[in-house]
Amino acid sequence: MTAVPGQRSTAAAGPAASERAAEEDLRALFGQSIAVFASLAGPAHVVETANPAFFATIGEERARVGVALAELMPELAGQGFIALLDQVFRTGEPYTGRDVQVMLGSGPQSREAFFDFTYEPRRDADGNVTGIRVLGVETTQVKHAQRLMAEHRGLLEQIARQAPLTEVLDGMARCIENLAPQEVLVSVLLADPDARHLRHGAAPSLPDFYNQAIDGIATGEGVGSCGTAAHRREPVIVTDIATDPFWDDFRGLADQAGLAACWSTPILARDGGLLGTFAMYHRIPRVPQDTDLALARLFAGTAALAIERHHIEQAKLAAEARAKSANDELAKVVRVERELRAEAEQRAAAAAELATQMRAAAAAQAATPHPEHCQLGGAAGCTAPAEIKIADSWGDAAWGCPAHVEEAILNVRSVFIASEELGGLTAYLNR
């Protein structure tokens, strides 16, 4: 694995150190603009002289003088800049452009840049225009920083309004891919609760087969860039997948997906717990610059905020669901308890009524001839005095003690208390 100068870890740093690190990241992202200067001669705008910043801007391979600007930078003609030079040379009126977009170079090496610039006519002793001075300040980094902060603010607003996590992470990945000066493919993996595996979170530009293949990879030393970064809790920079041993088990997959470099940054919670990983993939082997590392740290922090907010919301919903379930269960228990209490009260009332009837029957039947002992004891018999006569709908009758009479009335539906006046079928029909 290639070591990268300037890489730092702030996982264990205090608030002051974290604030300083954040300021350094902003300085790295916004950068310092450098003034470019060139002196052009004649109507053909031949480059007579230029400062190193000018040649660094257009590309050191084109650092030549004595050549017409249109020949040195043919891409300018189609963007209207040569026509503007012609106008200034013809009219003698200077021209100033603010935050103007320029495409420098051509093909895969072309890049978008922004400039504040002035075309100022050069004059001889007689006041005739002999050439043009070009003075400009590249504002590309400032422009990108403005776009970055606008996009970052939008992400924070999404998090604040509790947008779905997948929506936030997908938007973040696309934002970085659009802002990066060179092609980059962004991936966010989410850690399982046990921090032993990583799950797909967002990767809008990686092929589906690749996302599916790495979904659920283990965290551990040597498990690609992301598995290792998650295990170490620190960034892992693989500048060339084709030769790095961390990618031995995934090299064929990466080659199939057209990936040549992968820089992975762990996404950590405020307590240091693992939330996931933030990865930047490249089509060619690449060593990150300070701006790349700052961008990774900035958005890893944003992803951490979004994921922690999601976890808090999920825990809140789970707690509310448990509380609702407990309340529903409590309501069910209370309802059953009330039903049982009502049933018990009904039984108590019925038992009291039956006891009253039995006492009245025993008093009424006391003088009636009856056997000495209870006839309702079954095979075991009963030696208690017979006090109450009962009968059923078939005309059968027997005498029993209060306990056995109550038992018979409660357990045999057709049994009732008999009397001399109303016995047998008549008593049943008039009960």
UniProtKB/TrEMBL annotation:
It comes from the Bacteria. Residues 151-317 form the GAF domain. It holds the Pfam family PAS_4. Keywords: Coiled coil. The keyword Ribosomal protein does not apply. InterPro entries: GAF, GAF-like_dom_sf, PAS-like_dom_sf, PAS_4. Gene3D superfamilies: 3.30.450.40, PAS domain (3.30.450.20). Residues 323-353 form a coiled coil. This is GAF domain-containing protein. It comes from Micromonospora ureilytica.
